[in-house]
Fold this sequence. Notes:
By secondary structure, this protein is mainly alpha-helical. The chain folds into three domains: 40-92; 102-170; 184-249, Serine Threonine Protein Phosphatase 5, Tetratricopeptide repeat. The chain has eleven helices and no strands.
Amino acid sequence: MPRGTLLSGTSFIGTFVLIFIALATLFAVDTFLARIERAEARAEATRLVAEGRELMQDGRCGEAAERFKDAIAIERDNRDYRLALADALLASKKFVEAEIALGELLQRDSMDGDANLAMARVLVGETKLTEGVSFYHRAIYGQWRTKAAQNRLKVRFELVDLLARQHAKEELLAELLPLQDEASADLRTRMRIGELFLSAGSPARAADVFREILDHDAQNPDAYAGLGEAEFTSGITQRLVPTSSMLLA
């Protein structure tokens, strides 16, 4: 092979190698800079969310919502930022905006317990009680990332408190029956359940709960008062039954 041809081929290979090294270096630098930019963006989003949470604590929920929106503009797929935004919008009574924010989350994961609970609260705020109760149920049977059993119990209590305020006795009783089995055995919780049975128009079940409490704490004055009210209410109910029959006759 002629010497000139050999040198020419070597020169070509050397040039190709230099070009390859230059491109690889540029790619590495570009990747490094992109990582720095992403890290800075995430840090900025984190800062905005922290600022938003501080504003929430101060009761400045509208301003907090703007911080959360700015954070979401940086990290659009961050679930926790969207939940924070929904909470701020709910606290600001911007129900429609909150519903839209949560709708996007639930489209991605319809079983998200936190998102379903937030949606339930938004719908109740809009006085859409039937739809709200439905989302409370979705939250109860949904998926929770942490403390699933505790969160489900908390949602059940929130739902029964809502039904008690609405004087929806039949619906309240239906929710109390599973809650009675799932709730912890501490006396404060059992007292609350007994009182809710009274609100649901079930004095006999309330009396059973108060007697159970007195079996463990015989000197509990609140349990005695609850038992007395339950037995008094039950006695009135029993006396009214024959009266109603006589009227029908």
